[in-house]
Model the fold of this input.
Amino acid sequence: MHKETIRAALIGNPNSGKTTIFNEMTGARQKVGNWAGVTVEKKEGQIEHNDHHIEITDLPGTYSLTAYTIEEIVSRNFILDEKPDVVIDVIDSSNLERSLYLATQLIELNTKLIFALNMMDIATSKGHNINKEKLAALLGVPVIFTIGNKGSGVEDLVEKIVEVAEDRNTVSRHIHIAYGREVEKEIKNIQSVIWRNPEIGEKYSTRWLSLKLIENDNEVIDTVSFFPEIADDVIKQAEQSRAAIREIYKEDPEIIISDQRYGFINGALKECLKIKLIKRIDISPKVDLFLTNCFIGIPKFIFFIWGMFQSTFKLGAIPADFLAALIGYAGEAISFILPAGLLQDMIVNGIIGGVGAVLVFLPNILILFFFIALFEDTGYMARAAFLMDKFMHIIGLHGRAFIPMLMGFGCNAPAIMATRTLENENDRLLSILINPLISCSARLPVYILVAGTFFPQHAGNAIFSIYAIGIVLAIVVGKLFRITLFKGEIAPFVMELPPYRMPTIKGLAMHMWERGKIFLQKATGMILIGSIIIWALSAFPLNRHETDYPDNQTMEGSYLSMLGKSITPVLKPLGMDWRESVALISGLAAKEIIVSTMGVLYPGKNNNGEKIQKLSTRLKHSGMTPIAAYSFMVFVLIYTPCLATLAVMKRETNSWKWPLFAVGYSLVLAWIMSFMIFQTGKIIGF
Done:
C-alpha cells in the first residue's frame, strides 16, 4: 500500500533543543549534506507513522527570518520556495518573549504551523505556568509541550504534524498581527500595486511581501525584480511608504515593526503565562562559578581537553587493536585465496594495507567526537568561548571567534564555514587563515599511529602537546596577521550562555555517528582511491623486479621512490626520508591518506621474511627516531590544508588569493617548526 508523503520542516532559535527533537523523531534515518549553492549544513530525516511517510528537514538555527545571515536566508527560502506541508517552530518555553519573535514572523508567512514549546521541565522549574490552549487560540497555531532530551511529547508532535497537514486541526487559523493604523495603511498601499500581477500573489503572501519591503529586505526587493511589469512601481511605492512611516514615527520602519511584534508577544503572554515566584536551585550560575572563574577556568578547560585526548588514545586502543587484527586476517585470507601477482598485491598491500591502516582508528575518531558532542550538548562549548575571550583579544578577535576554532578539532572545513557568525570581514578572514592550525580529526590517526609507536607510555601527552602547539601557533600567527594584514578595532563580544543541560545518550550517539559516517565515507572513497594510486606508483615500473609482480621490500626504483627522493633534500633536515616525503604529498588530498600511504610504503616483512601485521611495528623498524617522529607530527599539524578545506576557503573568501596564501605560509611555518624541533632534539641527544 502506497503511503502518503508529508514534508515537514523544523525551525527554531539556537539552543532551543531543535536538533535534539529532530534526532528523537528521526533516529538513525538521517542524511547530512549541504544546501545547494551554500556551505550551510543540511539535515534530513524520515519517519513512518501509520499510513504516512514523513520527510523532515532540520533548518539552520536562527533568531529571525530577516535577510542578514545565510542561515536566515536558507531557512526562509526553504519555506517560501519548497513550501513544506507543515513547519514546526521549536520554542524555548523558558524564554518565550525572545523565542516568539521568530514565531510571529512565521505567522506572517501564512504557512501551516505547529509550535513545539520545548524544555518544559526547565520552564516549570522556573515557575512558568503556560496555558497551552489559550496560547494556541491567540496565535492561531496548535501548541505541543515537549521535553526533547527525554522524548516527552514527541509522539504527540508527530501526530499533530499529520493532523495539520490534512487540515484536521481546529485550532489552526490565519491571524494578522496589527502594526498600527499608519503602517497598516502603507501595507495596503504596497499590496494594491503588487495585486496588479496575480502571479506574484499565487506564490507569496502579498502582506508578507509588503512588510518585508517596508523593512527594506534586499532579498525581497530582488524577488520583486523577477516581475518586471510591476517591479519599478512596487519598489517606488515601498520607498514612499518607508518615507511616510519614518516621517510620522521619527524612527526607521524596521524598528517600528519590531516593536509592534514584541508588543503583540507581550500582550499574548499576559493572557497565557503566569509566573509563580518559587525558591528553586538554578545550577547554571553555581556551575559557572566553578567552570568560568577568571583564575581557575582556563586551567580547568586545559584539563578537560587533556583528558579528552588521553581518553581518545587509551579508550580507543583495545577496539583499534581488535580492528587491526581483523584487517590482518582479511589480508591473510586474500593472500591464501588469490595467486601471487599484481592483483593479490594490489588488494592485500594496496587496498587492505592502505584503507585498513586508516580504518583501525575509527574507534579513536568516534571517542573524540563523543567528547566534542558532550561539550556542545551540556552547554560547556559556549563557556569555553567565553573563557577564551581575553586570549582571543591578543590576536585582535573576540570569544565568539573561538567557536570555529573549537569546531576545527572535528573538521576545519565546517569550522571555516562557521566564521560566518563573525560580523566583521577582517575578523572572518583572520579566523579562516588561522583555523587550519587547529588540528582536525583527520590528522588524529597520524598522531595515534606515530605517538603510539614512538612514545607508547606517553602517547596521550604527546598528542595533547601537538594540539597545544597548534593553538599557540594560531594565537602567534593571528597576532602577526592582525598587526600586518588585518588592522582594525576589536569588535565587542556579546554571547548567549545557554543553561547547562543533561545530554542524552541517544543525542550523543547521533552526533558521534554523523561524523563517524563521514570518516567511513572518506575511507571508501578518497582514501581508497589514494591507496590504489600510491600502490601503483610503488609497484611500477615492473622491470626493476626479478618477478612480474612487486614486492613490498623492493620499492627502490619505483615511481613512488623517484617522487619521494626528488623532494627529500628539502625534508631531510627535518629528519624525514623519501617515504615520509611521499606520505606528506599524499596528505595534500586528505590527511587520513598519510596513514594509508604508510600502510603501503613500510615493509610488511622482517629480516627473517616473517609477515608483520601491525603498521606500528613496521614503522618502528623503519629507522625513524623518536625526535624525527615528533618533527613529522608537527609538520603534519601545520602544513598545507587538505583540498576540501582549501575549496571551502575559496568559497568563503570568493577568491583564490587567501587559499594560496594559506598554502604558502603554512608550508614555510611547518618547515621552520619541524627544523627547530628536529635539530634541537639532535643537539640535546634525543
